[in-house]
Amino acid sequence: MDHFAEETTMNDGLLDELRKWVLDKHPELEDIDIDLDIIDSRIVSSLEFISLLLFVEELRGEPLLSDDVQLESFRTLRMINDHFLVR
Description:
Blueprint: H1 3-7, H2 12-25, H3 46-60, H4 77-85
Helix pairs in contact: 2-3, 2-4
């Protein structure tokens, strides 16, 4: 069992969708650790960040509030999951 599978909780499907979105943008990657900083590692560029926000809104089924959109909350898949996808 990989690190990703061991660490997921109630919303495995949403986290899988988020992971797939990132991997689809980077076919050179086979996998991504949920604790990898996707901003510092440039996996998500500043141009892709808006697309990421929109995708998270789609997964949630509701818009993000402007107060919720802080770069620190989007650094890793785990942070995105914990802040926006777990209900």
